[in-house]
């Protein structure tokens, strides 16, 4: 593998644009060679802004461009399968944003295509690259809190996305779209999940009634090693974007996350105030960049991917079991 990779980016929506900017200026081992989007004006705009050589409206042209070494997939989740399969057949290394797909069947097909072709594949769970989560993982692995016993994770959006996006046929639903991060962290910190019990409701946004999803939900986890856990998800954090995780061990506890974006407190009579985190860009920008840098280093240094398609499928199985549990009001085994 050559020392500097030509990267092709498929999908220049909200996150795709951010990744194009990162690849063009903040990932030293990469050159943004090409971008693709069905919207020709968007593709050309990003190409011009980021200095890419080519802009395509058909991702097939990008993945088959002989100058492209690696493909970064930033399309809507329901389109991941087609792009990943095409890139795998073209023999290109692949980075794909989470989740793998909307269904286990599509995720499995992606895994099979990547395995059959033998191409390098890395999945984007950026929280594993956040400085706080990395430090916590190292401390837990070093035995600082003894044996982990309980996993707690909370994800809160400041406000809901559009109702059209929230429809499960578009987003996968609350547990896939939002909870997938927490379920991946549960596996990363504690181990495989044996069973889940979820409950959810449309409690804050009545306009979501009838779309087949919830704006708030809680999932209890039982791990295969006997540990227990809980994941809480909310579309109406209101005060800001809130991501927090806690691991309780036999000799201590580790807490990860924060609500204050800047280190400033305003203290007045009977009041202490600070700002909050507006969104995921602000909270995890460094982690997004770090995972792209890691992807490129893994390729140039022939290192294995830290997050594989199998990891994505495992987290997705938990999310699907959690969804089914909330629908059927019962404990659901994760495997099968």
Would you write up a description of this structure?
- This protein is an alpha/beta fold.
- It folds into two domains: 5-119, Rossmann fold (3-Layer(aba) Sandwich), CATH 3.40.50.720; 128-283 and 315-333, Dihydrodipicolinate Reductase, domain 2.
- The chain has helices spanning 14-25, 40-50, 59-63, 80-89, 104-117, 131-141, 163-166, 168-171, 174-177, 179-189, 280-300, 309-328; strands at 5-10, 30-36, 54-56, 70-73, 93-97, 121-124, 148-156, 193-201, 216-223, 228-234, 242-249, 252-256, 266-268, 271-273, 332-333.
- The strands form three sheets. Strands 12-11-7-10-9-8-15 form a seven-stranded mixed sheet. Strands 3-2-1-4-5-6 form a six-stranded parallel sheet, with helices on both faces.
- Strand 13 (266-268) and strand 14 (271-273) form a beta hairpin.
- The longest helix is centred in the last third of the chain and has 21 residues, at 280-300.
The portion of residues assigned to helices is 25-40%
Kindly state the number of beta strands. 15
Assigned CATH class of the largest domain: Alpha Beta
Q: Strand order across the biggest sheet?
A: 12-11-7-10-9-8-15
CATH topology group of the largest domain? Dihydrodipicolinate Reductase, domain 2
Task: Please tell me the CATH architecture of the largest domain by its name.
Answer: 2-Layer Sandwich
Global Rg: 20 Å
> How many DSSP H or I helices?
12
Report the principal-axis shape: globular
Q: Give the structural class.
A: alpha/beta
What oligomeric arrangement do these chains adopt? Answer: single chain
Order of helices and strands: EHEHEHEHEHEHEHHHHEEEEEEEHHE
Distance between the termini: 39 Å
* Structural domains: how many: 2
Q: What is the makeup of the main sheet?
A: 7 strands, mixed
Q: Considering the protein shown, what is the CATH homologous superfamily of the largest domain?
A: Dihydrodipicolinate Reductase, domain 2
Unreliable runs, pLDDT <50, ≥5 residues?
Answer: none
Strand content: 15-25%
Q: Residue-averaged pLDDT, rounded? A: 97
